[in-house]
Design a protein that fits this description.
The chain has 236 residues and is an alpha/beta fold. It has three helices and 25 strands. The chain has two domains: 103 residues, Rossmann fold; 118 residues, 3 Solenoid (UDP N-Acetylglucosamine Acyltransferase, domain 1). 13% of the residues lie in helices and 27% in strands. Strands 7-10-13-16-19-22-24-25 form an eight-stranded mixed beta sheet, covered by helices on one side. It has a six-stranded mixed beta sheet with strand order 1-9-12-15-18-21, with no helix packed on it. The chain has a six-stranded parallel beta sheet with strand order 8-11-14-17-20-23, with no helix packed on it.
């Protein structure tokens, strides 16, 4: 996993990051805003693909012009707005779709030579030797154990628990309240639903999907979808 950065146990000890722009103003953008504001980060604005000039001036527009008093100031593909990202302004990509998230990170890095910041909630507890890649979000009340390795641009939602020596691949999403046992290896681009339990030592293949509330007792193949207790493969 590339661009891994070591984090201290208490996220309140993290060095302050620069004021930043959140790219994506839908559900995940709202989560990112709450996480970043929990550590008193200054949010300059949102950018979003659905932004239109008339949104900012029309009270009847269906797309909002601000979220929790933070303005949506332009499109996520607006080069002029992206040029605000520099040595004094960070960014975080809060877009659910993995393909779009990858594209935006690549575009912004190519244009501004800068990777996205991490977003760690003030109530998260992270072991001293846990590591994570750029652009990863760690939600409220999350517990991350010793020697856990989290990749690039992962989403670890609120109250998830990752026991010791868990490995999470790039662009993987872990749902609210998921319980990941010791030594579990989750490869890239996996979706783990809310409340999932994965027992110790299991491997989850790239691109697999695990339905909410499932209990995983054995390895899951790449791109396989599983549901239930115990989790079994299903065709969708």
């Amino acid at each position: 996993m590339d661009s891994i950065h070591s984090l201290p146990t208490d996220s309140n000890e993290l060095p302050p990051i620069l004021p930043l722009i959140i790219v994506g103003a839908k559900g995940l953008g709202k989560v990112a805003l709450e996480v970043l504001q929990s550590t008193d980060n200054i949010i300059y604005c949102f950018l979003d693909e659905d932004y239109k000039e008339e949104t900012a001036v029309s009270e009847s527009a269906t797309f909002p012009n601000e979220i929790n008093h933070v303005s949506i100031m332009g499109s996520s593909d607006d080069d002029d707005m992206l040029n605000l990202i520099n040595d004094k302004c960070d960014y975080f990509v809060a877009v659910e779709n993995i393909t779009d998230r990858k594209r935006l990170i690549k575009k912004i890095y190519k244009q501004r030579k800068k990777y996205p910041a991490v977003a760690v909630h003030s109530t998260a507890h992270i072991a001293d030797d846990a590591t994570m890649g750029y652009g990863t979000l760690i939600g409220m009340g999350t517990m991350i154990g010793a020697d856990v390795k989290i990749g690039t641009s992962c989403i670890i939602n609120a109250n998830a628990t990752l026991d010791y020596e868990v490995e999470i691949g790039n662009f993987t999403q872990i749902g609210i309240g998921a319980n990941i046992g010791a030594g579990v290896k989750i490869e890239e681009e996996v979706f783990v639903g809310n409340g999932v339990t994965i027992i110790a030592g299991v491997t989850i293949g790239k691109g697999a999907r695990i339905g909410a509330g499932s209990v995983v007792l054995s390895n899951i193949k790449a791109k396989q979808t599983v549901l239930g207790n115990p989790a079994k493969a299903v065709s969708l």
